Amino acid sequence: MAASRASERSAREFYEMKQRAVHFYKENQVPEKIEEVLNNMFHESPVDVYGYLSEYFESKAKPPVIHKVSGREVYDSKGQPTVQADISCIIKGLEKHFSTATASSYNHYPDNIPLEKREAEEKERQQNTGAAVSLINGQLTEALCGVDPTDQKEVDDVVLTLIDKLKAEADQKEEDERLKRIEEELNQEPKEPAKEEKTISPKGKKKAGSARSVIVALEEPKEPLYPACSAACAVSQAVAMAGAAVKKVEFYEHICNAAGNVEVDVFTMPMPMVSVLSSGKPAPGKQNLIKELLILPKPGLPLEEGMKQVTRVYHQIGKLLFSKLGVPGYYVNDNGTFTPQYDRQEQFLDLVQEAVTALELTPGEDIYIALNCAAHEIYEPEKSKYEVMTGMLKTSEDMIEFYADIINRYPAIIALIDPLRKQDSEVWTKLCERLSEKCYIIGEHVYPRVERFVQEGFGELAASGASLRLHQMTTVTNIILAATIIKEEASITAISSVPGDTSDTFLADLAVGIGATFVKFGAPARGERISKYNRLLRISETLKEQGQLRVHEGFAFPVKRPPTPPPSEGAESEQDGSK
């Protein structure tokens, strides 16, 4: 009897399990899908039967979601600590690593800052990197768990919302502590004020401070950011790469789709602005104006030919410097550029033109020049003037004629980057009116953070274009939004690397995906620079094979003129009377 009851129980359990199986497979439409794929496979007769089945069932799997975000401290090209992020997703029920991205670090101060400031910045960088890694491994991985990696905007919104929340909490805590200190000081016994000694100024001499003060427009102070903000840049890049991997498309295509350009079937390769010479105020020599001299190939050339030309010019410059200055002339900086000690701007420009001519090329036809002036670094606040050379000072108005003269003497110059400070907005407008017909006026430092540019746009500084950099709190979504704003203003976009770069090739795909006109990755030297140029070459080759490549026909200079003033009340009344 006991054996019979056990057998009945076993049969009942087996029957119930069969019923659950029937319900499970029916609920998930397994029989219908099996029948469908078997019928399709029979008619199509694929060579790889199991590969066909694998592709079919993968298309029916649940979409991948972010499962884990991991952060770690690594080093950039200058040996400085920075943040790296990994993205792991759940796909087909299993956890899988999808992407790794490293944030480029940014140096707020120029290279010639005092040692104390440099040490303070290094300490702050170390603390901020550690805070970013902790944020990624803690609250960010929790916030992004289960989010679709192909939805770049949602991911970036989650990241920035969390950072803004943490910053608000930190600011409130700091304010509470400040008020507490003030209250404690007020509760202390008041001290007798020290008697002020009367100072008698010598007869006939004015008291100190009695002279008329000069109003000086000072440079904007360093913007306070949340210490862990670089987590946003690293995670945004890593998720963008994961999204492309999930969709099984080229990364630049994924960026293009994220920008809302779903039906784009042709891409235009950005033109390389290749750095060849560096100088500026922090460098030796009396010349201050040219911080960076860049060269560009002729528009319309295939990228591989253009890169070959500018690379030949770069190496020819090195040979000329070696013949003129010996081994020291061949030294390069962190950017890969040569750094000769020259006293005049003409020496740099003549050197480049000599190198171009030696290769039987023509300046202004085969090779063009761009100047990164970094005007904010050569401005003397006490004198309210720009020190273009040691001892040579120019007012902002003088700078217009100064630039016009240089461009007239060297017509190969087709771009000026940061020719004036942000504070000289009126003169900036006059400069654009004077030169924008034949020269790009591009803002880089005047638009310090992409997030602010998205909020404010060009503002009072209407320019031919803007140079966008991906670092700190900048996300992929903000780069896309900024590029859209620039395009709506009929201006051009340049994608630039920063001094503390990494070997990641992210920026190359980003530039192609958003349709940037120029890229500024540094010299054709050093691994972190060359990796991006090589990636551009690979993208160009792929697009050419697929018939999706379009080349630039020529330089199109967006003419920027001051806005037309509204008509006066008297003019309006005259017009009304004539009617």
TrEMBL record:
Residues 183-200 have a biased composition (Basic and acidic residues). Residues 66-255 form the Enolase N-terminal domain. GO terms for molecular function: magnesium ion binding; phosphopyruvate hydratase activity. Residues 183-206, 557-579 are annotated as: Disordered. It comes from the Eukaryota. InterPro entries: DD_ENO4, Enolase, Enolase-like_C_sf, Enolase-like_N, Enolase_C, Enolase_N. Residues 266-557 form the Enolase C-terminal TIM barrel domain. The keyword Lyase applies. Pathway: Carbohydrate degradation; glycolysis; pyruvate from D-glyceraldehyde 3-phosphate: step 4/5. The keyword Lyase applies. One of its GO terms (biological process) is glycolytic process. Keywords: Glycolysis, Lyase. Its EC number is 4.2.1.11. One of its GO terms (cellular component) is phosphopyruvate hydratase complex. Gene3D superfamilies: Enolase-like C-terminal domain, Enolase-like, N-terminal domain. It catalyses: (2R)-2-phosphoglycerate = phosphoenolpyruvate + H2O. Coiled coil: none annotated. It holds the Pfam family Enolase_N. PANTHER family: ENOLASE (PTHR11902), ENOLASE 4 (PTHR11902:SF30). Belongs to the enolase family. This is Enolase 4.
